[in-house]
Amino acid sequence: MEEKSMKFDPLPEGCIALILSRTTPIDTCNLSLVSTEFYSASKSDVSFQLDKKSGKKCYMLGARALSIAWGDTHCYWEWTNMPDSRFFEVAKLKIVCWLEIRGVLNTNALSPNTHYVAYFVFKMINSYGFNICLVELSIDIFGDQISNKNVCLNLNAEEEPDYDFEEEEIMDLRERMQGLQLPNVRSDGWLEIEIENFFNSGLEDKEVLMSVMEIKIGHSKKGLIIEGIEVRPKDAN
């Protein structure tokens, strides 16, 4: 009897990406080795899935889909693979003074009549400089800024400053960092911090601009690893 093989090429890449999003990073790698369609989808810069609870769309822009200042300058950023990432590449910060990360998503990619929350998803490995700087998170929808706030990306914000400061300067730094929003640990081991929530009526197709920036203090920073920016329904797990 002639064996019949399953053909995946008629499926749109978004559908294959959805299948891969339900697997582990290791499974994704294995599937990519045996299927050109899975390989192509695994290298996609975005990830799409449905929230199990509500059935509404969740969307994630991978690091390659973001605009990262000097992101292609090797002395500042490195593009590498991590086995626990859903994306083929993540961005690893070598060192910068000017941190500027932006992501753009059209509202027609999301479910209508839904409150969404945008999250910056990242890790810190041998980081430096993030316990003394306020990182600014903001969301603009069609040119109208609906949120702007300062946060601390260092989960251990009470660590001693990385730089040599006078005692008075250290006290001032700690006062500025006190009470700032800190990241949470996700079930997949990455960190996430809420950028802001917004409502998608679905009546108009608008651009949502999400920004992660530190351009005011000007101190050196390193050790940030960017997976991407995830947008999911407000009541999603």
UniProtKB/TrEMBL annotation:
Xref: InterPro entries: F-box-like_dom_sf (IPR036047), F-box_dom (IPR001810), PP2-like (IPR025886)
The protein's name in its UniProt record: F-box domain-containing protein
Top-rank taxon, per record: Eukaryota
Lineage of origin: Eukaryota, Viridiplantae, Streptophyta, Embryophyta, Tracheophyta
Residue span, F-box domain: 11-51
PANTHER family in UniProt: F-BOX DOMAIN-CONTAINING PROTEIN, F-BOX PROTEIN PP2-B1
Entry coiled-coil feature ranges: none
Pfam families, A to Z: F-box, PP2
